[in-house]
Specification:
- This protein is mostly helical.
- The protein has 15 helices and no strands.
- Helix 3 packs parallel to helix 4, helix 6 packs parallel to helix 8 and helix 10 packs parallel to helix 11.
């Protein structure tokens, strides 16, 4: 009755990472519990749920360092999120990728670059989210497409031409969205129509002649929307009625 009155009992049975139920009776943080800094079923480092563990460390960051060697990887991950930077460097070689990724998100960049060749994509993605300049460029040819995609999203646009021939269309579409306009002509022959459409939507209108006879109606439709009128006139009888209608509409507007 006392625990319920203090709001310390959860409406459901609390379970730890091994699947066993537990209570506050043998908790090492009794003083904190009395102060409301941990609450069974809501704010608890012993709970299996990451959200509850995270709340515990958010409210008690001074304790995070004590849990960096915990057997449950989720506890180590969230402890690394809140612990001192001086304490978490040793987790760069933790056996769990989630822990290493969290470390990569927090360490100074000089240390993060040492993790960019980690065996797990989660860690390399975390590195790509933080590294800059030459260190980020060094990850541009990573074997995992999502790492390369992260690089393409963050790389200086002036360096993006190195990704024009990436084997993954999604990476090339990102390149098309960020590449300097004067370099977009190189994508007019891309094998993926969605890459070509992205390029056509940004390239200088006069350069749309490169896309006027594209095999994909979506690309030609962009040409009909954006191109100078002398080029639009070529599309008034396009095989696709939507493209032809867009071209005729623009021509008609000009004649008014």
């Amino acid at each position: 009755m006392g625990e319920a009155a203090n709001g310390c009992c959860a409406p459901e049975q609390a379970t730890d990472w091994t699947g066993r139920a537990f209570s506050c009776e043998d908790c090492p943080h009794q003083e904190m519990r009395a102060l409301g800094r941990c609450v069974l079923g809501r704010v608890c480092v012993r709970d299996v749920r990451a959200r509850r563990i995270d709340k515990f460390f958010a409210g008690n960051p001074e304790l995070a360092g004590r849990y960096l060697d915990h057997l449950y990887f989720e506890v180590r991950t969230l402890a690394a999120k809140h612990a001192s930077l001086f304490e978490i460097a040793r987790l760069m070689s933790d056996k769990e990728a989630e822990v290493r990724a969290m470390v990569a998100m927090r360490l100074p960049l000089a240390r993060v670059k040492d993790m960019r060749r980690d065996r797990d994509r989660k860690v390399r993605v975390a590195c790509a989210m933080r590294l800059e300049g030459a260190e980020l460029l060094a990850m541009a040819q990573d074997e995992d497409y999502y790492v390369r995609l992260t690089v393409a999203r963050r790389l200086d646009p002036a360096l993006l031409p190195i990704k024009i021939d990436d084997p993954e269309p999604e990476v090339r579409r990102t390149v098309a969205r960020r590449l300097p306009v004067e370099r977009l002509a190189a994508l007019s022959g891309d094998p993926d129509p969605l890459v070509r459409r992205e390029a056509a939507e940004r390239i200088a209108p006069a350069a749309l002649v490169l896309f006027a006879h594209d095999d994909d109606l979506r690309v030609r439709h962009v040409v009909a929307e954006r191109a100078p009128l002398d080029l639009v006139a070529r599309l008034r009888n396009d095989p696709d009625e939507a493209v032809a209608e867009m071209a005729r509409s623009r021509l008609a507007q000009e004649e008014r």
